[in-house]
Amino acid sequence: MAPISLCDGSSSSSDANNPLTSTPTQSLLPLVEQIRQAVMQEESADRNPNAHFQLLGLIDDLKRAVESPTETLLRLIYQPPQNAALRTVMDMGIFPLLMEHSKGLSASELAEHTGAERALIVRLMRLMASLGLCMNPTPEFYRANAKTAALTQPIGRDGIPCIYDLTLATLTKLPAYFHEHAYTTPKEYSTSPMNYAVGMGQFEWLAAHKPRQTRFNSYMASRRQGKPEWFEIYPVERLTTSTTTTSPLKQTPEAVFIVDVGGNQGHDLLKFQERYPPDQIPGRRVLQDLPKVVKWDVGRGIEAMGCSFLEEQMVKGARIYYFRAIFHDWPDSTCQTILSRTVAAMEPGYSRVLIMDMVLPDTNVPLLQASLDIQMMSIGAGVERSERQWRALLGQAGLEVTGIWNRHPGMESVIEATRVA
Ligand SMILES: C[S@@+](CC[C@H](N)C(=O)[O-])C[C@H]1O[C@@H](n2cnc3c(N)ncnc32)[C@H](O)[C@@H]1O
């Protein structure tokens, strides 16, 4: 009797006609050709962030085109255990161990190092290897790869537990929240899904435990590694040269060049200070955040202020009020409060608002941006906004958008706005 093959790759004629399991009938070759060309660019001296982003999009298109509908659904259905297993492996400290032992470690050795049961390690690590987070060259043996290394750096080490712990309890209750709220978006921070699920919003939850806040701060500082800074996207000479619409930059010792509002521990200001020290662009540099969050001794001549952007802006007439990843945390009503405090402090014809945040396209929003929008809505009634939404929000606050710059379609844009009167 011939041996039974469990996976012989053939499909019956009934499978081919089943819309749930059939793969596309149109040729995939034009898509593969596009990918081939994009790969050639990726490997050439012409490599750039846009081409890289496009290549990733084409690979996603190909995967979706090849997957049958059933395969797509199964991939989505089993996403939650992947995140939970990864969070557990992070707690067990397995990735740093793999980095320390460059030749690799067996499941038994990992059990010895961690005190965990070997059988559990085998089950968790087979998923980690399937996700591409380490290598599994022989049975029950694991070796680090480049993704393992990233998991031991602040972006992975702090980002994964930070966002998992911050979000998961809320996401579990998200469907119930919307059911109870007649399927309407939250309009206030105090009535966000996170408030419904855990009784507080993201910033109170972070402030309640120092280790959470420390992880969050570390993740904030590390999450844009390798991506352009605002001053590499935005033409800084707009602030340093006078034009018909802007008065010259003030040179007096008390003049403030930039206030980084909600600047966390000052990572953006430090990079700006390094690129444009005060002998190149004069003016004080001020870091503002909540008193428990702000880094008081940020150094390099940066002045720290512990304050709330919901209260009066105490620094008047600065050249720039810079907000990075601030407005996406909040619903329109709170954004209007923050903007009104800022507009009141701005000097007409001199001060500008610079916002670094996502500007969503009207169609084909990248997966990361669409996911972030749901994340922000969940933990604080926040919103990722389209250009139309930004113009409406800023216009309502008495600001006119005077430019939007972007160098990377998957990343934040820089929006410049001035006071209308
Ligand atoms: C998403 S983080 C962005 C941090 C930083 N701008 C960046 O892009 O890395 C939001 C920041 O807003 C700060 N924040 C929240 N509420 C605030 C308030 N009422 N006043 C000032 N800062 C606040 C948080 O502490 C946090 O550092």
From TrEMBL:
- For bias type Low complexity, the affected ranges are 10-27
* UniProt keyword S-adenosyl-L-methionine present: yes
Q: Which GO terms describe its molecular function?
A: O-methyltransferase activity; protein dimerization activity
**Every O-methyltransferase dimerisation domain range:** 84-146
Question: Could you tell me the Gene Ontology terms of the biological process aspect for this record?
Answer: methylation; secondary metabolite biosynthetic process
The record's SUPFAM superfamilies line, in alphabetical order, gives:
S-adenosyl-L-methionine-dependent methyltransferases, Winged helix' DNA-binding domain
**What are the start and end residues of every segment in region (Disordered)?**
1-27
Give the Pfam families listed for this entry: Dimerisation, Methyltransf_2
Q: Which UniProt keywords apply?
A: Methyltransferase, S-adenosyl-L-methionine, Transferase
What PROSITE patterns is this protein classified in? Answer: SAM_OMT_II
Where's the O-methyltransferase C-terminal domain?
Answer: 194-399
Q: What is this protein called?
A: S-adenosyl-L-methionine-dependent methyltransferase
Q: Which organism is it from?
A: Aspergillus saccharolyticus JOP 1030-1
Organism taxonomic ancestry: Eukaryota, Fungi, Dikarya, Ascomycota, Pezizomycotina
